[in-house]
Design brief:
The protein has helices at 4-8, 14-20, 25-30, 72-82, 91-95, 158-170, 209-219, 233-244, 258-263, 265-272, 295-299, and strands at residues 31-37, 40-41, 43-46, 49-53, 59-60, 69-70, 98-100, 106-113, 119-128, 148-152, 180-183, 201-204, 224-227, 248-254, 278-281, 291-293. By secondary structure, the protein is α/β, with parallel strands linked by helices. It has two domains: 4-128, Beta-Lactamase (2-Layer Sandwich), CATH 3.30.450; 138-299, Rossmann fold (3-Layer(aba) Sandwich). Strands 5-4-3-1-9-8-7 form a seven-stranded antiparallel sheet. A seven-stranded mixed sheet has the order 12-11-13-14-10-15-16, sandwiched between helices. It has a two-stranded antiparallel ribbon with strand order 2-6. It is globular and about 55 Å long. The N and C termini lie far apart (52 Å).
Length: 304
């Protein structure tokens, strides 16, 4: 049966797919990203580090003598395959720099864009493998009530943890089935609807998180609203309205340290608004436990 990695490479060109499908099983299992860059070697992100792929299906942390090199034609054909040969159907997503894929995966796209945001030519593709780690956020359930912020650097597992928090509270893991509305602006949390978010979750696909949050708040009457990182004042205002309506907020933020949370205006304002009672700081270091900043610590001004 194909695993998550094999499903992610189904639409690659035969040359690349045949090499990648014979990679060591442990590498496949731990792989987070597959990067295809025109005229450059195939790279994998594994345990947060970079591995190069050789033509003999081996991997190395340094550039090998026989790397699996991607041609411009490979990248173009892979993009077409990932779009099911209908790139125009993904135009709005591509303008945002990504494509929602089957099996819950997502591909970032780089290349030449015109003034209207249309992709003229593609130069690189980054396929992020969506993984469901059931129960990974079980220890966070006591901190969900009143608002939860999952913070950390790219690749620290924020979306994976967010997904599991939603699934757990929606499935009544803590003794009560909570209604959760997920505003999935990049189709990453739900994997485009392919991933399990629990039995009591409503899913909204909209590029405008502020609009999505308002729709959820006014029509679905959730206990919690979950979404990825807030980046605009309109989205911040929606967070405040959710808080004022008694709805819990679960969201994420990119940062490397707790000090960075307060150095960024939007995250600082979210915390100061009262919509977030607890913060989980995730680390990119393998096996390192997250740091949990509870409401009392925030009130004491732990960041100051």
């Amino acid at each position: 049966m194909p695993n998550e990695f094999d499903n992610a490479i189904l639409e690659f060109t035969d040359k690349i797919k045949r090499t990648l499908e014979f990679l060591p099983s442990d590498i496949k299992q731990k792989c987070e990203e597959i990067r295809l860059r025109a005229e450059l070697p195939v790279c994998l992100t594994v345990d947060g580090g970079v591995l190069f792929v050789s033509r003999d299906s081996s991997v190395s942390s340094s550039l090998p003598s026989n790397p699996l090199v991607v041609t411009k034609e490979d990248v173009t054909q892979c993009l077409s395959g990932l779009c099911n040969n209908s790139i125009y159907l993904h135009e709005n997503e591509i303008k945002q720099g990504f494509i929602s894929l089957k099996n819950g995966n997502r591909a970032g796209v780089c290349g030449v864009f015109n003034a209207d945001g249309m992709l003229i030519s593609v130069s690189s593709i980054n396929v992020r493998i969506a993984r469901q780690i059931f129960g990974c956020a079980g220890g966070l359930l006591p901190f969900v009530g009143g608002g939860l912020l999952l913070a950390g650097p790219p690749g620290s597992g924020k979306t994976t943890m967010l997904r599991d928090v939603v699934r757990l509270i929606s499935n009544g893991t803590n003794g009560e089935y909570y209604r959760v509305a997920v505003v999935d602006s990049r189709r990453e949390i739900s994997g485009g609807g392919a991933l399990d978010l629990g039995v009591n979750t409503d899913l909204l696909f909209t590029l405008d998180k502020a609009v999505g949050a308002q729709i959820a708040l006014r029509t679905m009457f959730p206990h919690f609203i979950a979404f990825d990182e807030i980046g605009t004042t309109d989205e911040l205002q929606s967070v405040r309205e959710c808080f004022n309506a008694g709805v819990g907020v679960i969201t994420t933020a990119h940062c490397n340290t707790k000090e960075e949370l307060f150095s960024r205006d939007v995250t600082r304002q979210i915390i100061e608004s009262g919509a977030i009672k607890n913060i989980v700081l995730l680390s990119k270091k393998l096996g390192e436990k997250p740091t949990i900043l509870k409401d009392l610590e925030l009130e004491k001004g732990v960041f100051n």
